[in-house]
Write a structure and sequence with these properties.
The protein is α+β, with helices and mostly antiparallel strands and 602 residues long. The chain folds into 3 domains: 8-291, Butyryl-CoA Dehydrogenase, subunit A, domain 2, CATH 2.40.110.20; 293-325 and 336-440, Butyryl-CoA Dehydrogenase, subunit A, domain 3 (Up-down Bundle), CATH 1.20.140; 442-593. Helices cover 55% and strands 11% of the residues. The strands form 3 sheets. Strands 3, 4, 5, 6, 7, 10, 11 and 12 form an 8-stranded mixed beta sheet that branches. Helix 14 (443-454) packs across helix 18 (521-547), helix 16 crosses helix 19 and helix 16 packs parallel to helix 20 (576-583). It is globular.
């Protein structure tokens, strides 16, 4: 497996020229997030990712996390790496300084998180889950609960988990059966089983703070009757330190396709009827509380798709430079050529690079919108940025995780037969990536959310206005007085027209033919993301063209940006016509065969 080199220069370019880092640094509380300091932070993060986390990635895949009578041992070096991670303050980057956090924008935090996930996806899942738990407690816990738990979770001395899924309640969380019985002292007794709990048990920290969804005895059915509870592995003593062991245990670990070093636990609560939980907020509002962190959680999973794609691309690129086979057309040297000189290998590498850069721009823009939605002083603009974040989140999650799998698969293809051999490490990237389109809401659920909830915002006017705003990029490209920019505008304009047509079709059928909309939701979601990626590449090309002439290595970097954007417009936007057809096909053919007829001939 090749080394990982964090693409800091590209990250900075996206933050500064696409995601409006300068605008974020003008918001109250973000004044320290100016480009020079952010650059220094990212350089340090890159050293940690490449020097500490990346070398453990292969070890983690081979050893995996091991369950032993309720205890879990993580692979060699992982616990020490976590202690270094926490000691360096990486765990608390985006959180409130009042609780020991760094107070940095989510957009900057995501750039660092991209490095953790690319270097070692299985390791990065622990801080990702803790991040979600901290966000949940920050928004909805009592002040006493915040004081007890947040400082140590932000510092990284304790970690947090999210306990939603049960054997009979996966995506349908409303079907969960875990019970929470109120006690005279104000606590609750928790009883039930949860599955797929990432880092539900591990050997990194002295305590694990589980956030558990459960039902109280008189709760209404479905998601309306779900409450959320703090359930520590160790109950806290009078000084706020871990004391008596709570009545919970890790029953087993799942044996998974990938992310072997990440312990995916089956957790049992209340086997002895003594599991103590503490209610967060009010009863029956647990799902509402969970949704306050949903954009960030789903965006973080989209980031995993981007990260694993970047890692797979770097390995494929290194291999293509070194591997010699066949003589490339026009080769001047005798003997076999590096396979990077062959047209199809170059096409695959360009396809990987162009889509990775589009994903990075989309995800960082999405994160920036979340930051502006939280901090902008203007109420109207805060609401607008919140709507932008809501619209972009399903695109970021679904497209990036789908592409993470596709690009990891392309990485194997570049390796040829050696990609199918485990010792090269190329296969691990694909195995690790494959879970990302599934968890935190399958990509089909993301598509349903997009068409059924996000498109109808403001009666459909918001999404129509948002798409209309993209036309400015076409106009700016045409005004650039460059043939390459004009060519990009020629490719982007019809793609935008297709997106408008498909969007109008979806909005017109929402009320009267919702199954038509749902049947086309996945291709529509990809259509939207692919076109948005083209718009962002257009903005990237405009920024690069304006910066040309800076001298030194700058011109090479900016010329590469222009070439990559042009490749995206020709090769990736070509998907749009087919996606539009599928998105607008309706439901009749999808449901043409009955369940029994689907099995005919089998």
């Amino acid at each position: 497996m090749s080394d990982y080199r964090a693409p800091v220069r590209d990250m900075r370019f996206v933050l500064e020229h696409i995601a409006d880092l300068e605008g974020l640094s003008r918001l109250e509380g973000f004044d320290h997030a100016e480009p020079e300091l952010v650059g220094q932070i990212l350089e340090e993060a890159a050293k940690f990712a490449g020097g500490v986390l990346a070398p453990l990635n292969r070890i983690g895949d081979q050893q995996g996390a091991v369950w032993d009578n309720g205890a879990v041992r993580t692979p060699d070096g992982f616990a020490d790496a976590y202690h270094q991670f926490a000691a360096a303050g990486w765990n608390g980057m985006p959180f409130d300084p009042d609780h020991g956090g760094g107070g940095l924008p989510w957009a900057v935090t995501l750039a660092a998180s991209e490095m953790w996930n690319a270097a070692n996806l299985a390791f990065a899942l622990c801080p990702l889950l803790n991040q979600g738990a901290v966000e949940m407690l920050s928004a909805h816990a009592s002040e006493e609960q915040k004081a007890l738990y947040l400082p140590k979770m932000i510092e990284g001395k304790w970690t947090g988990t999210m306990n939603l899924t049960e054997p009979s309640a996966g995506s349908d969380v409303g079907a969960l059966k875990t019970r929470a019985v109120p006690q005279p002292d104000g606590t609750y007794r928790i009883k039930g089983q949860k599955i797929f709990i990432t880092y539900g048990e591990h050997d990194y920290t002295e305590n694990i703070i589980h956030l558990v969804l459960a039902r109280t005895p008189d709760a209404p059915a479905g998601t309306k009757g779900i409450s959320c509870f703090i359930v520590p592995k160790f109950l806290l003593d009078e000084n706020g330190n871990p004391g008596k062991r709570n009545d919970l245990r890790c029953v087993s670990l799942e044996h998974k396709l990938g992310i072997h070093a990440s312990p995916t636990a089956v957790m049992s609560y209340g086997d002895n009827d003594e599991c103590v939980g503490y209610l967060i907020g009010e009863e029956n509002r647990g799902m509402r509380y969970m949704f306050t962190m949903m954009n960030n959680a789903r965006l973080n999973v989209g980031l995993q798709g981007l990260a694993i794609a970047e890692r797979a691309y770097q390995q494929a690129l290194d291999y293509a430079r070194e591997r010699r086979q066949g003589r490339a057309v026009g080769a001047k040297s005798p003997g076999p050529s590096p396979i990077i000189e062959h047209a199809d290998v170059r096409r695959m590498l360009m396809l990987m690079k162009a889509q990775i850069e589009a994903m990075r721009m989309l995800i960082y823009t999405n994160a920036s919108a979340i930051d502006f939605a939280h901090r902008h002083p203007d109420d109207g603009l805060r609401a607008r940025y919140r709507a932008i974040a809501d619209l972009l989140t399903p695109l970021s999650k679904s497209w990036s995780t789908d592409l993470g799998c596709e690009i990891a698969s392309l990485g194997i293809q570049v390796h040829g037969g050696m990609g199918f051999i485990e010792e090269t490490g190329a296969a691990q990237h694909y195995r690790d990536a494959r879970i990302t389109p599934i968890y935190e809401g399958t990509n089909g659920i993301q598509a349903a959310d997009l068409v059924m909830r996000k498109l109808p915002m403001q009666g459909g006017d918001f999404v129509r206005d948002y798409i209309a705003g993209m036309d400015s990029v076409v106009r700016d490209l045409r005004a650039g007085n460059r043939a390459d920019l004009d060519g990009m505008a020629d490719d982007l304009a019809p793609a935008l027209a297709s997106l408008r047509e498909a969007t109008d079709w979806m909005l017109e059928r929402l009320a009267g033919a919702p199954n038509d909309v749902l049947a086309g939701s996945v291709p529509y979601q990809r259509l939207f993301a692919v076109v948005h990626g083209g718009v962002l590449h257009g903005r990237s090309a405009l920024a690069a063209a304006a910066l040309l002439g800076s001298g030194g290595e700058g011109d090479d970097f900016y010329n590469a940006k222009l070439a990559t954007a042009a490749f995206y417009m020709k090769h990736v936007l070509s998907e749009v016509a087919a996606l539009k057809t599928a998105a607008m096909a309706g439901a009749d053919l999808t449901f043409a065969l009955s369940p029994d007829h689907l099995a005919l001939g089998r």
